[in-house]
C-alpha cells in the first residue's frame, strides 16, 4: 500500500520464472501513444500479468531511471505533483490518469513497473508516449483569389475521440451563415472579399483550445455587427467593426466615413468632421481591432451607408471595409379605409418603411392620451364599428421610445345629418311686409349640402325651396303656416320638426 520511497531496482525480463510457471510477465497498454488536450486529463489504459503464485507488493509508473535500473515513482516528481492518479489495482489493472496536461508532459516517456513478494520478481512494461492534440488549419489553394473555391481543413497530429464536432471561426467569431459546418472541412464555393480574414477551428467541448488562425484571401478585413439598422428618428444606434491586418502592422488611425464621399487622391472625410453629424457621432479611436460607431439623436437625414477605414504604420497599410446601412424612419399611422363612415370597421396600422425588431410593443395614442384599448393587437388598432366618438387624432409609438411618436393622423368619421333644426329670423311672428329668413341647420360630416324646405297644409306638404336658407323679402299673410326642412349629405337625410310662422297684418 505504501508509496515507494527512494530508488528501486529495475531488472530485465525473468525468462526463467515465466518459463517455469507458464504465466507470462507482461504489461499491455491499449495504445503506446496517447493523445490529450492541453489543460485536460488523459487516461493510459494498462493491464499486467505475472506468475499466479506471486503476490504484488508495489505498483508505480515512472519516467526516469535514476541510476542503473532504479526508478522514481512518478507521483513523487515535483512536476507531476497532484497531477497523476493511479487508477489501477494490485491485481491486473495498471491504468494511469495524468491531469491538467502540460506541453512539457509530451517530452517524457511513461512506463509501468511492479514488484512482487519474490525479491527477484520485478517487471517493467514498454514505454508510452504522450502527444497533445494541436489543431491546425490548412488552406487549399494556398493563394486563392476572388471567385475561387477554397477548402479549409482542420487537422490534428493525433487522433480524436469518436466523431468530434468542429467549430469554425472567422476573425474569432463562430461561423454561422453563410458557411455553417460541423465537419473538419469548410468549403467556400466562390470566395469573395466578404470571406476574407483569419480562420481557425476548434473541437466542440474544447473551444478554449482553437487552432492558430490562417489568413484566407486577405489578412485585411473588416467585419461589421450589425450590417444594417433600422432605427427611429430621435433614437441612437451603434455599429461595431472588427478589423484584421497582418500581425506585424500596428493601427495608427481608425475612422468611419460616409460611403461615396471619397475625393479622388485624398483620404475620405472622417465622419466626426462632418458638420451635420456634429456632436452626435462618437467612436473610440483606440488602436484595437474593435471600433464602435455611435450616432445619437437620429434625424431622417442620417440615413446613409457608412464604411470603416484604418491605416497602419507600414507603407501601404490602409484598408476600408464594405458598408453598413442606417435607415432612420418615422412611424406613420395608416388608416384603412381612408374614408370612414359610421358603423364601418376601421383599422389603424402603425407602419415603418424598414423592419424593426419583431418583438416591438406598440402604444397607441388618441389626442394625446395613451389608449388601453381592447382593440389593439400590436401594430394595428382595430375598431369593429366606428362611432362619432372615435373621431380624433391618433398616433403610435414603440414601448421604450415613447418620445418618438408618429405624427398624428386624424380619424374623421362620416355620418348623415342629425339634430336638424329649422329656425326663423328675425321673428316667427312677423308683420306683413317684413323680411323673414328661414335657416336649416344640422350636424353632419361632411356638412349637409342638399336642403329641401316644405310647407305643410293639412296632411299635404309641398316643397317651397331647395337651399339652406329661404328668404321672404316682404312676407304676406298667405305665407303663414308650418315649415320644416330636410338636410342631406352623401350618407343620409334628416328632417327637422316644423316651425310655425304667423304673419300679422299691419293696421
Ligand atoms: C463618446 O461617448 C462616451 C460614452 O458615451 C463618452 O464617455 C465619451 O466622452 C464620448 N467621446 C466623445 C469624443 O464625445
Ligand atoms: C471585439 O468584438 C468582438 C465581437 O465583435 C468581441 O467578441 C470581443 O470581445 C471584442 N473585444 C473587445 C476588446 O472589445
Ligand atoms: C426582444 O425580446 C427579447 C426577450 O423578450 C429581449 O431580450 C430583446 O431585447 C427584445 N429586443 C428588442 C429590440 O427589444
Ligand atoms: C376590455 O374588455 C374588458 C372585458 O372584456 C372590459 O372589462 C374593459 O373595460 C375593456 N377595456 C376597454 C378599454 O375597453
Ligand atoms: C333625425 O336625427 C335625429 C337625431 O338627431 C333622430 O332622432 C331622428 O329620428 C332623425 N329623423 C329622421 C326623419 O331621420
Ligand atoms: C344661411 O344662414 C346662416 C345663418 O344666417 C349662415 O350662417 C349661412 O351661411 C347661410 N347659408 C347660405 C348657404 O347662405
TrEMBL record:
Keywords: Cell membrane, Disulfide bond, Glycoprotein, Immunoglobulin domain, Membrane, Signal. One of its GO terms (cellular component) is plasma membrane. It comes from the Eukaryota. Pfam families: Ig_2, Ig_3, Ig_CD22. It is found in: Cell membrane. The keyword Transport does not apply. The keyword Disulfide bond applies. Residues 126-213, 329-412, 417-504 form the Ig-like domain. Residues 1-22 form the signal peptide. PANTHER family: B-CELL RECEPTOR CD22-RELATED (PTHR46013:SF4), VASCULAR CELL ADHESION MOLECULE 1 (PTHR46013). Most highly expressed siglec (sialic acid-binding immunoglobulin-like lectin) on B-cells that plays a role in various aspects of B-cell biology including differentiation, antigen presentation, and trafficking to bone marrow. Binds to alpha 2,6-linked sialic acid residues of surface molecules such as CD22 itself, CD45 and IgM in a cis configuration. Can also bind to ligands on other cells as an adhesion molecule in a trans configuration. Predominantly monomer of isoform CD22-beta. Also found as heterodimer of isoform CD22-beta and a shorter isoform. Interacts with PTPN6/SHP-1, LYN, SYK, PIK3R1/PIK3R2 and PLCG1 upon phosphorylation. Interacts with GRB2, INPP5D and SHC1 upon phosphorylation. May form a complex with INPP5D/SHIP, GRB2 and SHC1. This is B-cell receptor CD22. It comes from Clupea harengus.
Amino acid at each position: 500500500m505504501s508509496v515507494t520511497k527512494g530508488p528501486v531496482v529495475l531488472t530485465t525480463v525473468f525468462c526463467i520464472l515465466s518459463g517455469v510457471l507458464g504465466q507470462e510477465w507482461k504489461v499491455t497498454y491499449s495504445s503506446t501513444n496517447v493523445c490529450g488536450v492541453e489543460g485536460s486529463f488523459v487516461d493510459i489504459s494498462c493491464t499486467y500479468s505475472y506468475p499466479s503464485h506471486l503476490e504484488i507488493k508495489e505498483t508505480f509508473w515512472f519516467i526516469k531511471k535514476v541510476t542503473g535500473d532504479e526508478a522514481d515513482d512518478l507521483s513523487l516528481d515535483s512536476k507531476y505533483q497532484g497531477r497523476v492518479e493511479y487508477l489501477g489495482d494490485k491485481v491486473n489493472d495498471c491504468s494511469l490518469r495524468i491531469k491538467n496536461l502540460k506541453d512539457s508532459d509530451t517530452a517524457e516517456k511513461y512506463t509501468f513497473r511492479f514488484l512482487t513478494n519474490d525479491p527477484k520478481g520485478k517487471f517493467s512494461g514498454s514505454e508510452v508516449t504522450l502527444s497533445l492534440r494541436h489543431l491546425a488549419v490548412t488552406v487549399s489553394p494556398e493563394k486563392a483569389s476572388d471567385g475561387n473555391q477554397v477548402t479549409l481543413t482542420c487537422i490534428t497530429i493525433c487522433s480524436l475521440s469518436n466523431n468530434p464536432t468542429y467549430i469554425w471561426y472567422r476573425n474569432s467569431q463562430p461561423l454561422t451563415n453563410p458557411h455553417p459546418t460541423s465537419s473538419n472541412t469548410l468549403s467556400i464555393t466562390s470566395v469573395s472579399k466578404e470571406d476574407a480574414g483569419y480562420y481557425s477551428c476548434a473541437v466542440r467541448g474544447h473551444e478554449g483550445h482553437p487552432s492558430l488562425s490562417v489568413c484566407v484571401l486577405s489578412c485585411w478585413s473588416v467585419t461589421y455587427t450589425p450590417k444594417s439598422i433600422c432605427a427611429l428618428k430621435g433614437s441612437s444606434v451603434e455599429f461595431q467593426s472588427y478589423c484584421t491586418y497582418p500581425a506585424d502592422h500596428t493601427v495608427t488611425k481608425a475612422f468611419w466615413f460616409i460611403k461615396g464621399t471619397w475625393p479622388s487622391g485624398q483620404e475620405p472625410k472622417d465622419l466626426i468632421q462632418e458638420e451635420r453629424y456634429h456632436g452626435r457621432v462618437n467612436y473610440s479611436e483606440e488602436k484595437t481591432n474593435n471600433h464602435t460607431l455611435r450616432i445619437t439623436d437620429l434625424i431622417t437625414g442620417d440615413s446613409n451607408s457608412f464604411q470603416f477605414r484604418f491605416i497602419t504604420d507600414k507603407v501601404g497599410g490602409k484598408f476600408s471595409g464594405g458598408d453598413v446601412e442606417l435607415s432612420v424612419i418615422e412611424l406613420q399611422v395608416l388608416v384603412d379605409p381612408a374614408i370612414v363612415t359610421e358603423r364601418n370597421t376601421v383599422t389603424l396600422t402603425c407602419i415603418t418603411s424598414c423592419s424593426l425588431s419583431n418583438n416591438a410593443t406598440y402604444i397607441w395614442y388618441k389626442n394625446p392620451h395613451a389608449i388601453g384599448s381592447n382593440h389593439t393587437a400590436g401594430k394595428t388598432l382595430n375598431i369593429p364599428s366606428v362611432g362619432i366618438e372615435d373621431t380624433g387624432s391618433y398616433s403610435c409609438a414603440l414601448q421604450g421610445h415613447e418620445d418618438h411618436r408618429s405624427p398624428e393622423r386624424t380619424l374623421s368619421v362620416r355620418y348623415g345629418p342629425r339634430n336638424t333644426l329649422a329656425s326663423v329670423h328675425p321673428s316667427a311672428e312677423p308683420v306683413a311686409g317684413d323680411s323673414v329668413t328661414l335657416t336649416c341647420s344640422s350636424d353632419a360630416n361632411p356638412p349637409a349640402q342638399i336642403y329641401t324646405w316644405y310647407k305643410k297644409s293639412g296632411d299635404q306638404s309641398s316643397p317651397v325651396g331647395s337651399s339652406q336658407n329661404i328668404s321672404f323679402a316682404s312676407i304676406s299673410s298667405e305665407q303663414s303656416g308650418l315649415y320644416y326642412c330636410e338636410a342631406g349629405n352623401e350618407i343620409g337625410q334628416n328632417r327637422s320638426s316644423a316651425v310655425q310662422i304667423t304673419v300679422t297684418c299691419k293696421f
